[in-house]
Amino acid sequence: MRKILLFTTISTFLLIGITSVKAQKGASEDKIKKILYFNPEVEPDIEEIKEPTNHAFFSAVSDNLSGYKKNKMLRAEIQIPFDSVDAQTIVDYCINNEADFAIVPKVKYFKVGIGKYVFSNQVIVSMKLFDASGSLITETDYDTYRKNMRLLGSAENFIKIGTNGAIKGILKKLRKIKPSSEAGF
């Protein structure tokens, strides 16, 4: 009798362990969300700073999204005007790239200094988040001078700081809009 009771107890614990592992596995296999990023609109419109800005921006985005395993970054090599976004263009790009969301960014440079003495080039990184149907979900901006208060550093570093801050701002606003289970973006 004792052997049967021991065998039943061990079998029960094994079955409970197997079912809990299956339950965890099913919950973690959420759908991977694809986020389409457009090239940022750069202000002032100087051709020489667009490529380094794009490189720094997408480097920061890929570094930031590497922490989220259920998100995948897609890149569109086109620049959409930040202030006049066409919803149909967003829909077309999301359909063609099978994306769930689209982000339209803008990087605005400004100089900090006194008179003719310039201390640093700061940036304001702005982002608009759209869903696949072209509806604006949220928008945010991050001013590296006001929020970070660092004067020394390269423009590339400020773009990375601003991009990380803008992505955190979007995630923060998404948590307010959506329930916590969907806010993983």
CA-based shape = elongated
Number of beta strands: 6
Report the end-to-end length measured between terminal Cα atoms: 55 Å
In DSSP terms (H or I, runs of 4 or more residues), the helix count works out at 5
Structural class: alpha/beta
CATH superfamily descriptor? TolB, N-terminal domain
The proportion of strand residues reads 25-35%
CATH class: Alpha Beta
Main sheet? 6 strands, mixed
What's this model, at a glance?
The protein has a single domain, classed as TolB, N-terminal domain (Rossmann fold). With 185 residues, the chain is α/β, with parallel strands linked by helices.
Describe the structure.
The protein has one domain: 3-Layer(aba) Sandwich (Rossmann fold). A hairpin with a 2-residue loop joins strand 4 and strand 5. The chain is an alpha/beta fold. 24% of the residues are buried. The model has no long low-confidence stretch (mean pLDDT 79). Strands 1, 2, 3, 4, 5 and 6 form a six-stranded mixed β-sheet that branches. Helix 2 crosses helix 5. The longest helix is centred in the N-terminal third of the chain and has 27 residues. It is built from five helices and six strands; from the N terminus they run H-E-E-H-E-H-E-E-E-H-H. 46% of the residues lie in helices and 30% in strands. This is Pyruvate decarboxylase. Keywords: Signal. It comes from Chryseobacterium piperi.
